[in-house]
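Folded chain entry
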Amino acid sequence: MSTAQIEVQLIAMVVAAAAALPGVFLVLRRMAMMSDAISHSILIGIVLAFFVVHNLSHPLLVFGAAATGVLTVVLVELLNRTKRVHADSAIGLVFPLLFSIGVILISRYASHVHLDLDAVLMGELAFAPFDRLTLMGLDFGPRALWLMGGILLLNLLFIILFFKELKLATFDPGLAAALGFSPVLLHYGLMTVVSVTAVGAFEAVGSLLVVALMIAPPATAWLLTDRLSRMLTLSVLFGVLSALSGYWLAHLLDVSIAGMMATMTGFFFLAVFLYAPRRGILAIARRRAYQRISFAGAALAVHLLNHENLPEAMEECRVDHLGEHLRWEEPFAKKVIRHLVRADAIRYDKEYLQLTPKGRLLAQTVMER
């Protein structure tokens, strides 16, 4: 493995961790599309700052892009407060306007620089190691690694310092305001952190991967836990795993690195979406199937108890009469019988069913409800 490959993976891992941390709060606040809005609208800030300094490495580009991200949040909030459009509609109105203006400015006035649309959307991680940070003739490594490492520390510091406030303002803004916190100030602070993160990752990984790493890992973690601290940890873990697996699959298949990393975020989400122990589709389907069988088993126990001491008890307790009395298909009836036999609620003697003491207790409990 070459030094450049190691550096590309390190940059991707740091970007993934830095993006996942604020992304958790975006997902919990149901503001996932805000990351998309910010990551696209900052383009106009980069372009306008470039027109001033004519240098793509100048720090003013970062400040211009971050300011545009905050401006996007402010415009969305202003539109939302008019009560004439919903939050999602406000996002859909603001960021396409700002992004399209940036695209027009690039195509009209900046076609001679490498601010092309492919770089804007997908980025190119493979080139990141060539942009080095040099001080007094010493090479300190890729500039993107230092930039995103600093942003990762900033995000960690912000979350650690304001963890309780962010948690309270996210889940109960009214209580936060009553206790003296300012949900609005925390909101804009969080959006500023999101903007800075999107700006830092923009050049290296492109806007699409910024959105993928900021939303997909937190959404995946949310399916696995209800604890905020654990969700933050899992989000970073899934982001890093997506970055590493995406890099090596892109290397194997000779495709876009950023595109494959974004694909892997979707793959991990889909896997958890299907197989999560509590919230996965398959787990939910199994619970529903079990609940159906369990409810039917209780109904059968009540049916047997009601006919237990009647003259026609033997006839009513025949297995082949269940379809007639309970309107069950034969395969479903067999599943219910197996469920009750395993629970030691009935005895199954060839064609007849008989309640056990445990089955009578079940039936009596159901009837008393």
